[in-house]
Every structure is written in structure tokens, then in C-alpha cells.
Amino acid sequence: MNHNTNKNTVTIETNSSSMQAPSFQGTMGPDVIDLRSMPQNLGLYSFDPGLIGTATCSSKITFIDGEKGILLHRGYPIEELATHANFTETAYLLLYGELPTLEQYHVFKKDMNTHRLLNEQIRNFFNGFRRDAHPMAILCGTVSALSAFYHDGLNISQPEDRDLSARRLIAKTATIAAWAYKYSIGEPFIYPDEEMSFSENFLHMLFARPGNHYKVNPVLARAIDRILVLHADHEQNASTTTVRLVGSTGSNPYACISAGIAALWGPAHGGANEAALNMLKSIGTRDGIPAFLEKAKDRNSTVRLMGFGHRVYKNFDPRAKILQETCREVIAELGLERDPLLDLAMELEKVATHDEYFIKRGLYPNVDFYSGLILKALGIPENMFTVLFAVARTVGWVSQWKEMIEDPTARIVRPRQLYIGSNRRKFTPIHERG
Ligand code: ACO
Question: Which residues form the active site (predicted)?
């Protein structure tokens, strides 16, 4: 990938030597200093656990300005995409860099819809899981297993193979996700419907039963679609970085996405919406809010206000703003204004956003605070929340994976460390140890 070298270079000096590090200028956002030659020139490594100050790649897909609350995909603001584009259109944009023409959209949609079906033998995988298995465990395992079924897209040096695998992953992850849910409640799997939109089909696979005539509510399908658009990509977050890292070793795309799903599972990442809802349940009623907030603010306690705060957004998360509105629409459509948990969430949001502690630290509701509430209102069980996030983020993961494979400067990710263990010492045979 091409980098624009900035005129500025940075001089790095030690007591005995120095080097000039070039800096690169992005289209937007801060410049980055190229430290790749530092180990060779100075015998030094940069120390950055958590990669807080490190750009690990260059990318044309997503831009975030956390201070200003800006999120752009391929240059388009998330607010416009969430309002005017559906998930399939957004997937096309992220994968190929441009919004599709009407014709391109129809061709892409038709092809994507044919990939929804799973090889019939994949059904057998589900029976190997306990009924009470977390659907993320089922998703992680079954997505990885897809590589054992779809051999024809595995030559990752071929652009057509990469594209085929990317499309399969986006389409089939949704079917696996819905079937994981059906399996957990002991209901028969509902086969995907090629005529429905991505979100309608997903709701249909979740809630239809043989013999009932499940009719998809368009307001609710739109709400799901919006959640999917808002979660489709988010630059170099923990799970995307994982996908790129695994991909850098040349692993097959199904293994890479499965690793991304595992990274997303954690409560500090994609598990936050499930954790936010559990937190609301533990608070119980409006009366419990002050005591809970005191605990969340106490530095000696491990309690955090789940669904608040973000590593990058130190202002309002722009996705949260859109979902706040969608959340209210869904609650009104379903007549859930009096649902005690939703009422509690709205009160908690009000109190916390006016509290000095959260204001001072730039802690605002993040996308997970509202997505959990919407999904609950739609009747989607809590253990499926992160699964839905994974269905959406698969689009970002495969786009970033493709970009990485196509980047001639990409190398296997192999960081170094600051060793703080014991110095070299002599081995003592076991019978001589005291
Ligand atoms: N509740 C209470 N205090 C918080 C919270 C919170 N949710 N988040 C951060 N803080 C406080 C920290 O204690 C710290 O306070 P201090 O300066 O007095 O020590 C300060 O704010 C800065 O916190 P950091 O941990 O340095 O922030 P970081 O950027 O590392 O963490 C994170 C971001 C992990 C998202 C954090 O805000 C958090 O745990 N939030 C709750 C979990 C959550 O909602 N995660 C979803 C993220 S969005 C996503 O994945 C789509």
C-alpha cells in the first residue's frame, strides 16, 4: 500500500547514536512515525502494551476521530450510511471501496443470498454441542469448521478465492448464528430464504417455526439492519487486529474469522452489551442506581458502568447517538415504554451522563448500551447479543483481511517484548533442589 512520506522526520537519539525516522501522512488523522528500522539502527524497540500509540497497518476502509466523534467508512459518514444504506449495500462498500450502482447491488445481493445455505453435513456439528452451550462457542467452532467444507476458496493468493470466501463468510455466519440459537432452545433449524433481505432473513431464521406464519415486522427488521450497519467495521479494534494477525501467518480465512469471533467474545469488547444488560438486572430498580454508580466510580472496586466509555471515543460514540433514536422507535413500536428494565436503563443513562466523574473522563454511552436494549426489546436472548455483533463485524473482518493480503508491505505480525524475568542461571537437577 502506498504511503505519503511527510517532509518531517523525527530524530531519535540515544547516548551513543541517533537515527532519522520518516513520518507518514494519512488522508486524515495524525501522522505516524516509521519505527521499523529502529531495532537495526539503534538496537531499541518501542514499548507499547495495548498498542495504544501504535499504528499496525495502513488502511483505506474506516476512519475514526474519537475526539470529534467521527466515524467514516470509505469516506462516508456512519450517520448517512445508517440512514440511507442497508447492510448489504454497506457490505459491498466495505469490501470493494465504492457504493454499488443499482445493478451491481442486485447482482451482489443475489449472489450473497445464494451463499446463505450451509452444507447439509454442517447440521451434524450442532449435535456435538451441549444444549446449554454459549452460542458464541458454537459460532466460533462452526465458522472455523467451514474451511473443511469449502475447499474451493482457500487459495488465498487468488483474488477470486479471497472474494468467494469473503462472501461465504458474511452469508453463512448469519445462518450459523441463527441455528446456534435454535439449537439452544430445542427448535428445528429454519433454512434461509433467498428472497428476503439480510435482516428479514435473519429474524425469520431466529423466530419462525415450522407451522407458524412468522411475519417480519418492517420496523424491527430496520432496527436490526441498523445495528448491523453500525457494527460492520470499526478500524483496528481488538478483534480486527486479531483477524489481521492470524491472517498475517497465511491461515485460511475461516480460521481468521473464527479467531476474530474469539476476541470479540470478551466483555471489554463485544461482550459489553450482554454485560450491560446483566448489570441492569443487578441494579434492579431506580433506587439501586446511586449505590451502583458509587461502586463504578470507586477506584478500589472492579465494577464498571458497562456500556459506557470507549478506548477511542472520548466524546459521544456517533453510533450510540443513532441507536439511541432507534431504541426509542423500537420501544414505541412494541409498546414497551413501561418495561422496568428499559425504564431503568433510560434513568441510568440520564444520571450517569450528568455525573461529574463520567463527564470529566469523557465516558459516554457506547453503542453497546443501546444495542443490548434494542435486542432485548426484540426478544433476542442476551447470550445472542455478541453473536449478532459477530454477524455484523464479519463484514469488517473479511474486508480488512482482504486488504491485508493485498498489501505488499504486510508482514507476519511478530512483536517483541521487554524481558523482566530471571537472568541466565544454572540448572539444578531435581534431587539436588532443596
Ligand atoms: N465505568 C467507570 N469508570 C470507567 C469506565 C466505566 N465504564 N470506563 C473507564 N473508566 C475510568 C477508569 O477507571 C479510568 O479512571 P481514572 O482515570 O480515575 O483511573 C478512566 O475512566 C480511563 O479508563 P481506561 O480504563 O484507561 O479507559 P480505556 O480506554 O482503557 O477503556 C473501555 C475503555 C475498556 C471500553 C472502558 O471504558 C470500559 O471498560 N467500559 C465498559 C465496558 C464496555 O462498555 N465496553 C464496550 C466498548 S465498545 C465496543 O467494544 C463496541
Answer: 310, 368
